[in-house]
Amino acid sequence: MKSKRKKVAGYIMALILLVNVAMSIPIVAANTSNVQLINRHNVVIVLDASYSMNYSDKLELRYEAINQFVNLLTEKGNYLGGIVFSNHIMDKEDLKKIQSQGDKDQVVELLKSKKSTKVDSNQGYTNIGEALLEATNMLVNAENKDLSSEIVFLSDGETDLPKDTPEELEKSLENKADAIQVARDKNIKIYSICLNSNGKANLKEMEQISKATNGTFKEVSKPDDLKEVFSLFYNVIYDTTTCGRGLSIPQSGQAQLEFEIPGIGVEEVNILIDGNIKTVSLVKPNGKEAKTQSVNGSSRDFNFIKVTDLMAGKWKLVVTGDPGIKAEVNLVFNTDLGIDIQTNNTTITTDEALDVTAKLFDGEIPEISDSSQLNGYETELQVMDVSGNLVDTIPMNLDNNQFKASYQPSEGTYFIKAHTIYDLKQLDMDEKNNLEKESEVLGPINVTKAEEPKKPVNTAPVAVEDLVEKTVYIWPFKENEISFDLSSLFTDAENDSLTYAVDSSFMEDTDYIVENNIVTLKHFSLTKGDFNVKATDTGGLSSNVKVKIVTHNVGVMACIGLGIIAIIVLIVLGIITWKRAIAPFRVDESGIKVQTYKNGIYSGTPHKPMRGTCKLARFRIDNIGIDNRKSYFQATGKNYVILKTNIPVFCNGKASKKLQIKSGIKYTIKVKENDINLMTIEYKSLMDKVMKRKRPKPVKKPKAPKKR
After folding, report:
1. Residue 515: what pLDDT?
2. Global confidence as pTM
3. CB 486 within 8 A of CB 535
């Protein structure tokens, strides 16, 4: 049982990590109409129900992990949906607003309800593309489009469909490419977790899906450390703070741990206790016992408590159990802290000060009226150069319910942000457990020398085109590649030297490389994709352009087309050869008369061929420069034959390798126009009489009447 709990914990933490990355998006400047959107998201859980999952996760720990993950969400306000798939989508729960524990349970029950029990043409395989495309469509059509959107995707491997349906595999890969493109266009992050407990999963496909959408990929092979995975994942994705420690019940049968809640910034506290304990209670800072909500999934060995009625100050967690019992306690703080940064000017000289203010707020308190609510928060101003490197850090002082700092930078271009931190001092631990938040980045801030006139206002690079489209035809047995020059995509009014950043749905080093600002795409792991190219000038201003790549795999079409063409050519050649072979010469009894005149001597013997072809060598003539074995007459069945020679010959002043020899006419042929050596050809065709009979009789004109 203990091993099972540890695996559940591992899966829970991996799931939490995935969503926390999504939630780590910087909060923008305070806006009272949007404060309730802090730490609220549209999330679709996509679960693989292929047959192989029965071996990757024999104990079905994924369902307990999903249940735990969903319960960690805030009590109200998030939007949640679910998809279960194998060959095709088996069932789905459309994205809905979470308003109760029942709403959460409904999604979990859907994900648990469908399982593949066999592998056949109808179920048991893995159609990743179809499931992800449906999930992205759900999020594109979300009710609240102001929220950021994420997909949490759980599987144990790669796209796998029946080998006897290649068109189904092709469609799945096409859907996957479409899903990735939609996710990139709509800023939907896909967080993939591979349940690889058997160590046999192929990780590359899931890793690419997450990397292409700026999500995170995580392989879970040894899910036995709840604390580490919680700390690594949940704090990153859901913008929460997590801390934990082990405890041992003393002889008194009761253990106490203290933790602290700040005046603003924490919306809920989730308490997870892994261990065989008897009771759990909470004492508020005012000494009264707090009401706690035991969440679905709690048991004797695993307690999950959600606390929503919070009070600033020190709290006590009281745990009772048999002496010597050990347990692991984790606190997960769902935060709703925001920070707004403002400055007096973005263009100053070196003798002027840069004044910066930072205001903290949360979902319930858009404006702080009592500075005591900010007790414990320490805020600093971080100054960065155009490359994002930290240049300076300046403490900010609390003044009139907001943090302020004055900074006098040297000449240059800078960006600034505010960073606030609260030491939670949780669980009597020595190490720090901090609640942290960063503002949006503000800039560029241009600083010039005081004695110099202010420089002209810098302008950002301009994209030559907003969208560049390129098509690649993938041919078999051929290296297929495409390249483009990043410097050709932008212009800059100040002729600044630009630096480029490339983000692509294709995989760097595997699919493409960037050398000397040239992007070369040599491998195509997706049927379609794009490159988001960002150009930044020396003043820190930037612009973007998208290069869209569409591939057409002409391998199969080409092979089929070439095969059809080859068959047609063979048929045509066969017909021609057959016709030539059966066509009669139709010469009279005297045959074809061929004679050569060489060195004053005539030679040659008439020959009467029947059908097909007849080589000149059959006429026993001298060699006047023509290869008599390679030159021949071709029958036509008409009143002429064709002479084909291996080299051009002259006849009637024209040179040709193909001559039409008509019946009743004597032809003189020379290799050179002025040569004294020559060859003569003549014959009579039996078709002459037939042609005469077919000639229409002339119509006699009626005689004009005589004049009287």
Report:
1. 94
2. 0.74
3. yes
